[in-house]
Automatic annotation (TrEMBL):
UniProt xrefs under Pfam families: D-ser_dehydrat (PF14031)
D-serine dehydratase-like domain mapped to chain residues: 325-423
Name of the protein this chain belongs to: D-serine deaminase-like pyridoxal phosphate-dependent protein
Listed InterPro entries: D-amino_acid_metab_enzyme, D-ser_dehydrat-like_dom, D-ser_dehydrat-like_sf, PLP-binding_barrel
SMART domains: D-ser_dehydrat
Domain of life: Bacteria
Amino acid sequence: MSRAHVADPIAGLADERLAPSDKGLPSRAAGLTVAEFLDTRPRLGEFWTPVLVLDASAMHANAEVIQGFATQHGLELMPHGKTTMAPELWRLQLDTGATGITLATPGQVRTARAFGITSIMLANTLVAPAGLHFIADELADAGFAFSCWADSEATVDAMERGLAGFSLARPIDVLVDLGAAGGRTGARGVDTALAVARRIAASPVLRLAGVAGYEGSLGHDRSPAALDVVRGYLTELVELAAAVRPLIDGAPVVSAGGSAYLDVVAEVFASATATSDDRDAAGDDGNATRWILRSGASLLHDHGFYRGISPLDAATGVERPLRPAMRGYARVASHPEPGLALLDGGKRDFPFDEGLPVPLTVAPELGTAGRPLVGASVTALNDQHAYLRSDAALPVAVGDVVSLGLSHPCTAFDKWRFIPVVEHAGSDLVVGLVRTFF
């Protein structure tokens, strides 16, 4: 069934037909719709390796944890949808309380609009004429809330050129992107950013809506030095927000927050709210500042990078921690040396940019209980192989299945079109197939 002919396009994903080319799915799934296949109560043991598997219980718990964190700290949550590009998972967070979805490219925005998402922040510049025209058309829908970023007057010039001669129902909301030396995008310094804000405010086709930035690229650990850099940057972002406030008509937006330093974001934003004497701090003008967190990897968490850096990981002692909600499974395809085995999953199947997979257990077959795989590590990935090594003889046999903890959700989902979802980590009952759109 075409998504154009269903009232709820996300629900309509259940009517998609599965194909032999859908990696990891059982052969018998080909030709069935997602709903028909799930009605047969498939078991994980039917799936082919390598495979990526999601944990429904952990994802629902994580959605509640990150939403609870945001609410507790007076923040809105607009999680980064590029992490999964999975409308079903966007809906999970929207239903849990998120006020919108953040995306990274105009193409991702078009996908989200096709699935009925009505509140989107594009955490990037929008300068391509085709993308600008698409957004201009979408803004004819009074129920669609959209904003993008700009970090230079040249960006504003490019937006205006792209919109020249184009009729807009309303101006495009733009947030000033504040950067930092050694970081990613963003105006370098408050004074430069303020000049960009004035340029946006003067534009006939754009509306200054607030300020935003990304602190995650400024640190890679939780050392005091890294936290100080992040805290200093966020303090500048708050200073910029105060400086541009007189230029904004309506409720200003201040947004930051990946999944690594969200606690520092909450701390600095709370301090700004507590000390501000601006009239909008108490909301008595009806235009209280919207403080928006964009943590996206928190829905999945991981066994690697975010486990080591997130303030909500179980190791930090928080009462309600995030739980890893994704695992990889790969089969022992070769065991040429006592301390070396080659698995049948590699770079085309699992993320590797923020740490290699972590061996967890080994079992005689997929979907059966495994035993801990102690003393082993994955030392390298090829396109379709993982190198499992140990100083001692590995307790695995050709044909065994190794479960792998993964690192960095943002580069896990793009390798799969359909991802099976089990009830919980100890279950082999497949209760969902998450469809991705990369």
